[in-house]
Structure formats: structure tokens, C-alpha cells
């Protein structure tokens, strides 16, 4: 074994598994989505590698690289062990990676025949490489991707099999309840109004807030309601990591008084209700000043229950397909496509805003769709030959079969239709939403989920009908992403988003929140780096999809299908010469 670089599974700098720092206790809101959805473990096997050794077989190693979003630079993530004398290695050392549905994580697997103890890869024989995305591995049947190794012209370099397995600790949640006794009295008139704030420690010793209980008014012996938190958020899956709990007295003006604190860990808490889980609340300032200070009260764990959640990846692994449909706004307010001021302007050197939004979202979602065939629709245009206005026409000109192959096929059909249709109006969303809803209504068994991407320049004409369509669609296995391009005011879109007020139509409320709206202008990188703009856009619009997907499955009581049986590589019998 020679001196390896980073151990397999070490995190890249800048890709923390943690939450952003919160400003203060008072304004802690919902958890940010920057906690990775989960961690996956990648196993690598090869078949029929090139033989570079004269008297024996190759001694292969696999080196994994990840790619930075902005500058496209490849960075080494980790290495497997070296396996001597085989062309069919099953590497034991795994790569453990953070998995985000909403990010495109480009991977490169390089293979070398190791000839010496040197850690310098240029001193060893190159056996080829394989490029893919993490989504491609996860989205393959059984989360098992088999691909040819390339990179040496004129040679067959064999195949690589990469399997992704979700790590178990990531899907556990804990239901906990705490009470306190004899807390310090902080209020002049009345008793304290206590609440607890939980922080998990980070690698660098800092702390990140991860949960805040409700306030129990006017008592020094509060019993807080039980609360549920993911193990990932509580300790990032590390059972021995310090968890700091602070006790505060709530004040209306936000200047909450600090009562004291204690530390624990997931492992300690998991012992449940016992003498080990009664904690002294200590106020370090008081302790330093008063010789007779004992504590500022005690906090006791009343109950601790572990629940294993089914995850988004369980459904994907069980074969659920994500079907992606695109709908593009061809109304006249976009401007004449032949003019550079138009939002549909076909610049030969760079994508327009519509193209960027399509690529950003489509390139990630296509990894979860096995046939890579996407219906692409347009609305608000006059169609040849008779100039009739249509609000759901096929971009490829074939209403019987509006499917395009891959995101490249969608882009091609979009550019082609710009040359043949006349931009017109009005801006009606309901027809394309109903179009996808008809398909979603026909498969409610959890085997398929539909995502509709609408790219529009803004002012919607059929608000009442669109609301009705969304309320109806909220019962179906579908989500809607709306990307607003251009400078318009998008107030009506915010209403459709339903994050603040759940959308309703004629007194009926949407069963669940299925719409995510973002204005593209919020994501434009100031330095003009379109790759970064697209990555930021995709991250925000896709981050809600796994939770919307799970909310549908939960409401309908649909469990994931069992994954296909795990792949067992064929055993190669070594021929021994007599």
C-alpha cells in the first residue's frame, strides 16, 4: 500500500455538511437546505482491465476526482487500495460522498496499474478513465451504473461498475422530549419563560444551531413538547460529536436572558431516560463569580425514540421514474427573437435566459429518467400554416409525439420552433399544467413522478384557471417549477408559489405545496460566469423536489418498491498451470 492522498470519503473544502451560521437565537428559522440530503457510499469494481505487466497481471488502483462548479477544475477526492495481480478488481475501500439531488456532481474515475510505492500517479501506468455524474449512478436501475472505461485510443479498456448505497444513519430521526427543574428566575415580576436551543459542533470547533424548542411561559419547571429532528441535523451522523444545549429566558424584545448550558452527545442521549440523562445547567459567569454556585437548575431527558424514515433514494432505487416536461413562453412580450434585446434572442455565442434555465434544470433531472425522452411544449404562439393561437403545442411540431431526446433534443426543438412560430399571447399556464396532470392522473401507484418546468417572462393572463389547475394537481404525483426570466414584476408568481400562503381556488386549498417559483435574475453571476448562474438556479429550484415527492408518497401511503437484488460480480476461476 503506498502513501495515499486524502482518505476516501474526505469532504472537499467549501462543501460543508453543515448549516449556515445563524445570526442569533431570536431569528432562527427553518433549517436551510445546505445539509446534504444524505450520504452515499460508492463501491467500485472493474472487469477486463488492460494488462500492462509483462510477467503478471496489472495491479490496479482507482482514483476518484470531483469537479469544481466554477472553474471546472478536477480535484482528487480519494483513492482505493491497490489490488495485486488482477484484471477484475472488486475494490474494498469505498468512497463516501454527500449527495444533493439539486446539484450536478461531476465525477471522474481514473485507473492505474501501480508499479512502485510512489504516491505520484505519473509514475504508474494509466489504464483508462470513466466520467459520470453522481446522479447518473443513483438514478440507474438499482443505483448500479456499468460503463466502458475509455482514454487509451484504439484499446478496449474494460468496464467499470459503480454502485451507490445510502448510509443508514442519514435517514434516522429522533423524537425527544425534555423537562427542567428549578431553573434560575430571570424575570422581575413572574417566573422565567424558558426555552432550549440545540447546537451541533462543526469540524472546526464552532457550533451551528439545529433546533429551538417552544417557549413555556412563567415556570421554573417547564415540560417542553416532544420534537423530531434528523440525526443528520443533530450531529451529522457522528454519534460522539458534542451537542451543546443552551437554556434561555424568553423576552418579548428579543434580548433573551441566558440561564445556562450543558453538553451531551447523540450516544449519551440514546441511553434514553436514566440518571445519565439528567444534566446540570451551568452559567459559566455565575460559576466564576460565586463560590457557592452549584447550578442554574437541571434539564432531564424524558424520552428518546429513533425512527427510520424512508428516503427519496429508496424510491429511486426501487425504480420510481421522474418524468420531466418543459413548457416555454412564446408570447410577444418576450420581444422579437431576431433582436438582441429579446429574451428569445438566439445568440450564436451564448445561451439566452430560456436556454440557461432549460439546461440548468434539465441536465440534473435527466439522470433520473431512464429513457431520457422529454415532452417539450410551448404556449402563447401563433402556429403555421393558419396562424391559430395555441397554449400547448409540441416544440418538435409533432402533437402526437412531443418527446425530445435528452436536454440537447429539447434545446434543438426550442430553437427550431422559434424560427417557425409567431410570438403572440396571452400568457396562459393552465393548459400545460392540465396537460401534465392528465398523465400524472393515470399513474398514481408511485412508479412515476412528474416535474413540469415552465419558463416565462411573466405576467400571467389566466390566474383563476391556473390556480384551479394547481389545486387539482396537488393531489397528483407532480411538482411545478416556474422560472421567471427578464425584468418583469413577478408578484403573481409569488402567489402561485404558496410558500407563504397555501394556494386556493374557489374555497379549496391545495393538498400540498407543489409549486416553486424563482426569478432568474436573482441568479445571474455578476462576473458573467453562466455556469455558476445555472448551478445556483438549479440548486434553488430543485431543492424542494425530494420533499414534495415524499409528501405525495406519505399522503398516499405508498412505500418504495424493493430494490433489485444487489449485483454480485462473477467469480473468476484462476487457471493454474501444472
TrEMBL record:
Signal peptide: none annotated. CDD domains: C2A_Copine, C2B_Copine, vWA_copine_like. GO terms for molecular function: calcium-dependent phospholipid binding; metal ion binding. The keyword Flavoprotein does not apply. InterPro entries: C2_dom, C2_domain_sf, C2B_Copine, Copine, Copine_C, VWF_A, vWFA_dom_sf. GO terms for cellular component: plasma membrane. GO terms for biological process: cellular response to calcium ion. Residues 20-147, 156-279 form the C2 domain. Residues 323-524 form the VWFA domain. Probable calcium-dependent phospholipid-binding protein that may play a role in calcium-mediated intracellular processes. Belongs to the copine family. This is Copine-8.
Amino acid at each position: 500500500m503506498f502513501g495515499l492522498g486524502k482518505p476516501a470519503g474526505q469532504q472537499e473544502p467549501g462543501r460543508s455538511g453543515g448549516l449556515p451560521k445563524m445570526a442569533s437565537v431570536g431569528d432562527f428559522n427553518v433549517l436551510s437546505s445546505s445539509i446534504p440530503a444524505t450520504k452515499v457510499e460508492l463501491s467500485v469494481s472493474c472487469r477486463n482491465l488492460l494488462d500492462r505487466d509483462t510477467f503478471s497481471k496489472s495491479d490496479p488502483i482507482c482514483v476518484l476526482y470531483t469537479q469544481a462548479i466554477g472553474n471546472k477544475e478536477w480535484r482528487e477526492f480519494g483513492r482505493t487500495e491497490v489490488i495485486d495481480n488482477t484484471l477484475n478488481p472488486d475494490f474494498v475501500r469505498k468512497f463516501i460522498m454527500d449527495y444533493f439531488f439539486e446539484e450536478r456532481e461531476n465525477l471522474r474515475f481514473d485507473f492505474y496499474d501501480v508499479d512502485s510505492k510512489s504516491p505520484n500517479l505519473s509514475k504508474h501506468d494509466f489504464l483508462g478513465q470513466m466520467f459520470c455524474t453522481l446522479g447518473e449512478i443513483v438514478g440507474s436501475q438499482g443505483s448500479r451504473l456499468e460503463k466502458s472505461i475509455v482514454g487509451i485510443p484504439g484499446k478496449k479498456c474494460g468496464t467499470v461498475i459503480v454502485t451507490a448505497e445510502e448510509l443508514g444513519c442519514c435517514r434516522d430521526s429522533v423524537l425527544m422530549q425534555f423537562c427542567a427543574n428549578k431553573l434560575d428566575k430571570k424575570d422581575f415580576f413572574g417566573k422565567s419563560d424558558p426555552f432550549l436551543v440545540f447546537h451541533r459542533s462543526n469540524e472546526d470547533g464552532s457550533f451551528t444551531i439545529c433546533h429551538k424548542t417552544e417557549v413555556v411561559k412563567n415556570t421554573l419547571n417547564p415540560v417542553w413538547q416532544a420534537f423530531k429532528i434528523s440525526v443528520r441535523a443533530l450531529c451529522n451522523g457522528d454519534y460522539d460529536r458534542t451537542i451543546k444545549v443552551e437554556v434561555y429566558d424568553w423576552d418579548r424584545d428579543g434580548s433573551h436572558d441566558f440561564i445556562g448550558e450543558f453538553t451531551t452527545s447523540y450516544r449519551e442521549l440514546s441511553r434514553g431516560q436514566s440518571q445519565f440523562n439528567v444534566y446540570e445547567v451551568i452559567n459559566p459567569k455565575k460559576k466564576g463569580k460565586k463560590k457557592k454556585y452549584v447550578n442554574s437548575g437541571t434539564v432531564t431527558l424524558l424520552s428518546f425514540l429513533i425512527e427510520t424514515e424512508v428516503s427519496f433514494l429508496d424510491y429511486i432505487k426501487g425504480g420510481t421514474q421522474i418524468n420531466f416536461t418543459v413548457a416555454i413562453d412564446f408570447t410577444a412580450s418576450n420581444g422579437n427573437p431576431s433582436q438582441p434585446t429579446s429574451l428569445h434572442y438566439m445568440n450564436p455565442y451564448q445561451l439566452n435566459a430560456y436556454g440557461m434555465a432549460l439546461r440548468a434544470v434539465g441536465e440534473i433531472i435527466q439522470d433520473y429518467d431512464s429513457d431520457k425522452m422529454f415532452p417539450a411544449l410551448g404556449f402563447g404562439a401563433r402556429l403555421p400554416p393558419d396562424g391559430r393561437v395555441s397554449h400547448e403545442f409540441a416544440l418538435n411540431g409533432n402533437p402526437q409525439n412531443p418527446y425530445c431526446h435528452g436536454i440537447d433534443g429539447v434545446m434543438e426543438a426550442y430553437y427550431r420552433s422559434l424560427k417557425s412560430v409567431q410570438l403572440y399571447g396571452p400568457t396562459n399556464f393552465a393548459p400545460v399544467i392540465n396537460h401534465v396532470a392528465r398523465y400524472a392522473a393515470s399513474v398514481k401507484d408511485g412508479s412515476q413522478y412528474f416535474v413540469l418546468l415552465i419558463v416565462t417572462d411573466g405576467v400571467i393572463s389566466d390566474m383563476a384557471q391556473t390556480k384551479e389547475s394547481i389545486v387539482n394537481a396537488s393531489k397528483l404525483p407532480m411538482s411545478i417549477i416556474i422560472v421567471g426570466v427578464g425584468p418583469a414584476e413577478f408578484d403573481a408568481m409569488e402567489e402561485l408559489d404558496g410558500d407563504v400562503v397555501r394556494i386556493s381556488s374557489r374555497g379549496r386549498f391545495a393538498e400540498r405545496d407543489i409549486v416553486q417559483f424563482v426569478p432568474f435574475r436573482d441568479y445571474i453571476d455578476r462576473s458573467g460566469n453562466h455556469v455558476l448562474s445555472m448551478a445556483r438556479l438549479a440548486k434553488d429550484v430543485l431543492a424542494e423536489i425530494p420533499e414534495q415527492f415524499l409528501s405525495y408518497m406519505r399522503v398516499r401511503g405508498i412505500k418504495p418498491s424493493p430494490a433489485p437484488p444487489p449485483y454480485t460480480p462473477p467469480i473468476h476461476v484462476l487457471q493454474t498451470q501444472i
